[in-house]
């Protein structure tokens, strides 16, 4: 393969891997250019604010752009009204009076912004409304109206571009984030169960659990954006709540397994359980991985038969150990860990059944669309 062919292959791979980021870059650029052109066409005093607003509200998903636009407009409107009112009703012809008015405008809005982040832009807007007239010699009311118009133009432009140009729906991002979280859980399960025979370092345990927790935090944020799109009728799809709650419960199962696997089991029982535990771990990991692939491909969930067979084999071995008196001779902490592990597996199986229903629900819209597109 020639150097140019290798370069093209690497470039195509990069584009596929960073498709969402490249689409965002294009949307932001078009939003900035369009807002500047419209601001100049409408002869707005400061097109800068229209351009900045368009860039700020053009986000990774339509749902996030919708929230950013609404928050930015609310904050701007609040800051413009308050700042304009302060500028009109309180004289500030001297420098000392201007300092006092500025403090009176900024302090309350800064407090409001600290309480409600939606108003984070309000102090900035009030400052512009108060100080810009000293440069342009316009009235505070005119300055406030100009800021609202500029921000409204930029916000609407950014939102329209996000919706029409290479739109990226949060619903699809939820599926991708959930699939990534499931794949992370599948890898974590093998590492945790290895602790029953090799021991598990506390730092490694925290690293595993923290990684899953961070993935769930990101997933929850994207889920909020997807629900915002659904509420605004900008997207159609399954409710994100059941899927997010199921993944959170699966995370709790892994926490229980991690606590049970913090140290190796006694050698005698560890050898007897090594094969059944490996089977259960592999079956659950395969199921989580297959569910992740199903979410990405918009297809139905995988069967749970392998998990059920592995759990039956594990339960049969535990029953045999109890008949032979192995569990009675175990130290109390080891016996507690063995029974806690069995409980965690039962809970994980129950949550996997919930996951199965969630994956089926997420596959239904695409399957219905496929049936509707079939020729009569």
How are the elements arranged and paired?
Blueprint: H1 3-17, H2 19-41, H3 47-57, H4 62-89, H5 95-115, H6 122-136, H7 140-164, H8 170-198, H9 202-231, H10 240-260, H11 267-297, H12 305-323, H13 332-372
Query: Helicity range of the residues?
Result: over 70%
Identify low-pLDDT runs.
Answer: 369-376
| SSE-based structural type | mainly alpha
Amount of beta strand: under 5%
Distance N terminus to C terminus?
47 Å
Spatial extent as radius of gyration? 29 Å
What's the number of helices?
Answer: 13
**CATH uppermost class of the largest domain:** Mainly Alpha
CATH topology of the largest domain: Methane Monooxygenase Hydroxylase, Chain G, domain 1
Largest sheet: none
List how many beta strands DSSP finds: 0
What is the global morphology? elongated
Strand/helix succession: HHHHHHHHHHHHH
CATH architecture of the largest domain: Up-down Bundle
**What is the mean predicted local confidence, pLDDT?**
87
How many distinct domains?
2
């Amino acid at each position: 393969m020639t150097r140019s062919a290798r370069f093209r292959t690497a470039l195509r791979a990069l584009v596929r891997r960073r498709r969402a980021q490249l689409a965002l870059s294009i949307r932001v650029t078009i939003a900035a250019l369009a807002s500047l052109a419209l601001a100049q066409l409408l002869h707005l005093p400061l097109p800068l604010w229209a351009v900045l607003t368009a860039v700020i509200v053009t986000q990774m998903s339509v749902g996030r752009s919708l929230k950013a636009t609404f928050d930015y407009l609310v904050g701007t409107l609040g800051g413009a009204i308050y700042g304009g009112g302060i500028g009109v009703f309180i004289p500030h012809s001297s420098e000392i009076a201007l300092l006092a008015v500025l403090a009176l405008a900024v302090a309350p809005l800064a407090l409001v912004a600290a309480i409600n982040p939606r108003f984070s832009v309000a102090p900035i807007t009030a400052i512009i409304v108060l100080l810009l007239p000293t440069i342009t010699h316009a009235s505070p009311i005119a300055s406030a109206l100009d800021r609202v118009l500029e921000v409204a133009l930029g916000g609407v432009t950014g939102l329209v571009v996000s919706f029409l140009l290479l739109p990226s729906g949060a619903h699809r991002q939820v599926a991708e984030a959930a699939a990534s979280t499931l794949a992370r859980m599948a890898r974590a399960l093998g590492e945790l169960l290895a602790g029953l025979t090799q021991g598990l370092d506390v730092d490694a345990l925290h690293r595993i659990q923290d990684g899953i927790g961070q993935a769930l935090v990101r997933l929850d944020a994207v889920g909020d954006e997807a629900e915002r799109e659904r509420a605004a009728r900008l997207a159609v799809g399954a409710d994100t709540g059941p899927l997010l709650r199921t993944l959170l419960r699966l995370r709790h199962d892994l926490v229980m397994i991690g606590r049970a696997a913090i140290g190796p089991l006694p050698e005698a029982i560890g050898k007897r359980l090594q094969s059944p535990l490996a089977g259960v771990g592999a079956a659950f990991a395969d199921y989580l991985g297959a569910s992740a692939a199903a979410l990405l491909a918009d297809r139905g969930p995988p069967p749970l038969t392998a998990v059920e067979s592995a759990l039956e084999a594990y339960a049969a071995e535990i029953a045999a150990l109890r008949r032979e008196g192995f569990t009675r001779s175990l130290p109390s902490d080891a016996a507690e860990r063995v029974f806690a592990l069995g409980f965690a597996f039962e809970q994980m199986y129950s949550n996997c059944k919930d996951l199965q229903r969630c994956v089926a629900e997420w596959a239904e819209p695409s399957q219905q669309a496929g049936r509707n597109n079939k020729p009569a």
